[in-house]
Amino acid sequence: MGALRLLVGVAAFAGLASPAAAVNIRVQPMAQGGAIQDARVRMWDSSGGFYPGNMNAPLLCHIQPGTTYFYPDGVTPVSAPAGSYTIQAWHGPEWQIAQTSLNATRDTVVNLTMTRFDDLRPRGWYSGDLHVHTAHPPIQYSLDPLQTLRVAHAEGLSVVEVLNNDDDDEFEGEPSGVSDSLATLYYSYEYRNQFGGHAALAGLVSPIGSGCCASNEAPWPMLVDIQQLLAPQGGLMVLAHPVTTSDYEARSGWPGMGLGREMQVLAALGGVGALDVVSYSNDPDTMFTQWYDLLSSGLDVPASAGTDCVMNWVTDLPPGGWRVYANVAPGAQTFHSRWLAAVGAGRTFVTSGPLIPRFEIAGIAPGGTLDVPSDTIARPVRIEAECVFGISRIALIADGVERWTATLNGATHVDTSFTFESDTPRWMAVRVDGMTAPAMLLGLVPVAHTSAVRVTRAGDRRPLAASCARAWDAVQRYEDFAIVTGDHATSWPAWEHDSLLARTARARAFYGRPFVLASGSFSRLTTDDSHLRWSASHDPEAFDRVRYEADFDTLSGLPAPFRVTTDDTTMIVSLPRFGLWWCRVYAVDRGGNRTLITGGTFAIAGGTADVASNTPGRAKIFAFPNPARGPVRLTGFGDDVAVYDLGGRRVASLGDGIVRDGGGHDWQITHSSRPAPGVYLARSAATGANVRVVVLP
After folding, report:
1. What range does the domain containing 550 cover?
2. Is 6 a domain residue?
3. How confident is the model over 532-572, as pLDDT tens digits?
4. Most C-beta atoms within 10 A of its C-beta, which of 304, 350, 367, 551?
């Protein structure tokens, strides 16, 4: 608060020689008491040329389109031609931007005294960047922890998570030893699941790996598995840059390998500790809309920020351009642990400049829950917002829709209270937009956004159908892409494949909760066995959808050897063998409600080859020995042969416990791969084989 004050001091450098056509300008930001202050600095001449104009390791100079920025180290000057210059210094959104101009005719020291705009620390607010790299190949600057700490100080960051997968020499499993009272550095890993998405493993104590699932590999392990390893350590999984690209099927490189395809599955299964709703690597930087859908589905997903900046690249943006403020509660744990806990609890707002130190509804702040007894709400709201370069607009958002707005003309501080009357929303949050951003924001949109206050009605979260429908579709898209990619690209162990399907089924069931009414009746339209056609089944609920499942079997009442799922009302039938087949067609909605086709099960004749049958003169289908203690010979099965336990879990398939041997297959029950004693089912859709096998102790 208060006016900007600048002190410009000029002194000759003792013993420092300069070329006749150049001067050395040492920029020294200072606190109001005269102490040296770390800051980010820009310097340009009267023609718009920026300095230093090239790589400078001591100053950590970074070059951006139309500008440069650097971090003074108290010693190293900028060499530039004699002339007129403008210099700016930035120390984060709680400080005024310091600026001065000078005509440099000799070696000069420029002291810029920086003035606070506000100090949120006494109110418990501390800012951090959860995704920073200092050793990401290729290495252009080699930053040690002390240099990294200097940059954290300069940006006004209290916490920086440094994720150096390629150079883990600094990993300690605790805050770095160089951390001080102003900033905590924590060296950890970015887990890069190149299929499902990337995640910051904040607060990691013991390494658990740093990646999987390149383009030629199956999508396993899932991120939810990594979260289950991280949680007992007290760490926080932050899903990083979830929307790197709109090209969903790109897997061969960046940005497709960073896309958060697993986001909706991970969130439904409770694995998203926080979400980078702002990041340099999001496209665009903000991804509020997708986050709103998760909140409206009934999930508590805290807003976080990880820039994904690469400090060792000359051309990259700085840490903290996007940052998350967390309201830290007092306690006996380390500051870093309490700060991470505040992020995970949703006591946060994210920003590129504007600040939101208070948002409350009926005294409940972000991360909390307000329960009301009725369909309508009338509760007091209080919002405090501020921005060093001015506020243009404030919006109160409920269920993803702006429900109250205030347009301002550049006010730097706002403290407003009012009564919010409405139908009862599911969640509420505040967005603040700044005025035209200063150049120090390096092109970022000036915006801040709080995490949500959950609003329940008599304890009910009341998921929003439209949001659940979009999330449901995202889960289905993930599953479809995972199955096609995994099955076609690699040998995928059956238990991994089936576990992924079980998890996506759970996620669909979660997002399917609003859809409780089954779709309407439908009937078969043709008796042509090679083409099945049926009338459309219509679902009565808004945002619901209908898919069709056709089950085919050789004997009515048994589990179907195979199932075909389609969105169409026409299906070309290609059955694996001659004979009489039974068919059942269901209309299935998002909620899993099933409507059987009018008339129920019907018979069709089909098949393209008489490959196996337990009739005289044809190949027998059997397993021997049965019961068995060792390998079992499977005769009359196709290459799609698989063995299941009675819970429906696949325990063996070709290439994973089953090998082809001559005209048959062997289930290799060995000492090292012995299933539990019990009854199993060996099946092959290609031949219609279904044989029970008893495994003995």
Report:
1. 531-606
2. no
3. 899 999 999 999 999 999 988 876 555 556 778 888 998 87
4. 304
